């Protein structure tokens, strides 16, 4: 096969229902969402030739390929860094298509993260995953000190930012309220029909006092999401309107790691997101004002603020006020996490918000933004700009 | 059998023992002896944390473990409430300590109430026992 530069596009998305107890294996969830993505695109699963997931996904490539009847797999890879992998899967898929190495790249993430194991619990086998390939090597330095959950690491990472700019927990509540408003209008969301008020947020229990309450934290969910990436040319002949991957990037600056991220110079910024932003704007020639919506990884609410600032949607320290003024609402400057995000829709490790980015470009979101040309999707250490063809 | 005249035994430590990797072995062995050490490059003299086999600045493998001043400030902090941290009777104050040597270390601030913790407050190292007879460095307000 001749290797020439080939433009990449998303041709299909698929997902299972999002629940707290799927009642079936993670492999089955993976197979169901993968099949749905292929059917959405109108390609046969037999023709998948590349497969990408997260290092911590429990389903094996070969077992999933056996479910789907994949005839001849040409490329497999996995991305480290927990949820930071979400947008990086799209980056990798783009690169594989660009290089002419694959025609149909399947991205999947499927987990029973609520019914089978819970990231938010005290030390257990999942949490101790400081092993190589997970990008979270310093967690072991936290555990003897009672920082044993993602919320504890996340709070410690965000606290100096909150202190420096005087961002209170009540300020974070505006993010939760907006995302639950979106979720309330999204039939796929776990919190469909269940909006909250700022008082509900303030009445939810402390998870990390005095920084994060329950309603600042992403859900724990069971479910699966898959995305099918192919060439733009081929996508034009398939069932859906192609969603171009205009640019995609990953950035892991020196001394940065996922979540137990305390060793880089300035803890009031997210250098990895700044790095992604720099690459994306350079790759595409676009600017923040060229985005009509953004899907921003929101394991915990303060990280939305840090990313909004890193990408240049707000100046440093101003994101909380921007949100309070309605910046991320449907009629705001930049609608953010219109599926309800990981707090409102579900926590499929960020992949459900990536799929929402695709829906916004297609014009099929339950909270559709008008006149969308470009959508930013970010998982902190990676990001992409999705665009209309 | 315990004789009725013996003083009551100190409660057994419930804090989880550190997870020791080969690259951090000397750090935790020193902590067991109530020594707070750091990794200093034997060639360029720069401090590095977390410990690693190679100096990221000059790529020297000449790694020296030197005793640190044990002085620092509270750079970031939080109080884990839910779920209750395993091994702690009361929620600890977890903090990122900015050490005088220019490196950072996640630890606990002890000997202060929840309403007494302050950003950038000056602290100094002390040690607390863990399960399996180990010790970990923690920090208390610096004595004047």
From TrEMBL, chain A:
Q: What does the UniProt keyword field contain?
A: Transferase
Give the classification, highest ranks: Bacteria, Pseudomonadati, Pseudomonadota, Gammaproteobacteria, Nevskiales
Family matches, as Pfam families: Thiolase_C_1 (PF22691)
Domain Thiolase C-terminal: where? 264-385
The record's section on InterPro entries has: Thiolase, Thiolase-like, Thiolase_C_2
Q: What is this protein called?
A: Acetyl-CoA acetyltransferase
Q: Gene3D superfamilies from the xrefs?
A: 3.40.47.10
An example of a GO molecular function for this protein is:
acetyl-CoA C-acyltransferase activity
From TrEMBL, chain B:
Q: Pfam family example for this protein?
A: OB_ChsH2_C
Residues forming the ChsH2 rubredoxin-like zinc ribbon domain are: 28-60
**Signal peptide from the UniProt entry:** none
All copies of domain ChsH2 C-terminal OB-fold, residue ranges = 66-128
Cite the InterPro entries for this sequence. Answer: ChsH2_C (IPR002878), ChsH2_Znr (IPR022002), NA-bd_OB-fold (IPR012340), Thioester_dehydratase-like (IPR052513)
Official protein name in the record: OB-fold protein
Q: Which organism is it from?
A: Sinimarinibacterium flocculans
């Amino acid at each position: 096969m001749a290797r020439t530069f080939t433009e990449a596009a998303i041709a299909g998305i698929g997902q299972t229902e999002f629940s707290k107890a799927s009642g079936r294996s993670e492999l089955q969830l993976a197979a169901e969402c993968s099949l749905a993505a292929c059917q959405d695109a109108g390609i046969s699963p037999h023709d998948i030739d590349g497969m990408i997931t997260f290092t911590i996904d429990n389903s094996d490539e070969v077992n999933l390929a056996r479910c789907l009847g994949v005839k001849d797999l040409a490329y497999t890879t996995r991305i480290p860094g927990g949820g930071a992998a979400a947008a990086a899967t799209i980056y990798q898929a783009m690169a594989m298509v660009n290089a002419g190495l694959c025609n149909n790249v399947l991205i999947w993430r499927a987990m029973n993260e609520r019914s089978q194991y819970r990231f938010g619990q005290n030390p257990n086998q999942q949490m101790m995953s400081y092993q190589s390939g997970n990008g979270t090597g310093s967690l072991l330095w936290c555990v003897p000190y009672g920082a044993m959950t993602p919320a504890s690491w996340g709070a410690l990472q965000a606290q100096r930012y909150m202190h420096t700019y005087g961002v209170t927990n009540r300020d974070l509540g505006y993010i939760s309220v907006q995302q639950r408003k979106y979720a309330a209008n999204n039939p796929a969301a776990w919190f469909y029909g269940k909006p909250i008020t700022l008082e509900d947020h303030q009445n939810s229990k402390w998870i990390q006092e005095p920084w994060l309450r329950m309603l600042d934290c992403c859900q724990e969910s069971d479910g699966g999401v898959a995305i099918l990436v192919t060439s733009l040319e081929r996508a034009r002949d398939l069932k859906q309107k192609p969603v171009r991957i205009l640019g995609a990037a990953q950035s892991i600056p020196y001394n940065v790691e996922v979540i137990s991220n305390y060793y880089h110079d300035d803890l009031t910024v997210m250098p990895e997101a700044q790095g992604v932003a720099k690459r994306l704007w350079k790759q595409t020639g676009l600017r923040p004002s060229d985005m009509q919506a953004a899907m921003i990884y929101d394991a915990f609410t303060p990280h939305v603020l840090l990313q909004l600032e890193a990408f240049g949607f707000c100046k440093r320290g101003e994101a909380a006020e921007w949100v309070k003024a309605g910046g991320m609402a449907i009629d705001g400057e930049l609608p953010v996490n219109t599926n309800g995000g990981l707090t409102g829709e579900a926590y499929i490790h960020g992949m459900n918000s990536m799929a929402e980015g695709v829906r916004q470009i297609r014009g099929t979101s339950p909270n559709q933004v008008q006149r969308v040309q470009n959508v930013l999707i970010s998982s902190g250490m990676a990001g992409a700009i999705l665009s209309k063809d | 059998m315990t004789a009725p005249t013996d003083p009551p035994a100190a409660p057994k430590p419930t804090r989880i023992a550190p997870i020791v990797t080969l690259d951090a072995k000397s750090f935790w062995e020193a902590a067991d002896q109530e020594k707070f050490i750091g990794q200093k490059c034997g060639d360029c003299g720069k401090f590095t944390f977390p410990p690693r086999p190679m100096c990221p600045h000059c790529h020297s493998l000449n790694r020296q473990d030197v005793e640190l001043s044990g002085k620092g400030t509270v750079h970031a902090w939080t109080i884990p409430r839910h779920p209750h941290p395993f091994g702690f009777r009361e929620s600890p104050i977890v903090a990122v300590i900015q050490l005088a040597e220019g490196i950072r270390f996640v630890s606990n601030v002890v000997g202060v109430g929840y309403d007494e913790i302050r950003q950038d407050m000056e602290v100094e190292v002390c040690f607390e026992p863990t399960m399996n007879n180990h010790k970990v460095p923690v920090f208390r307000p610096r004595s004047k």
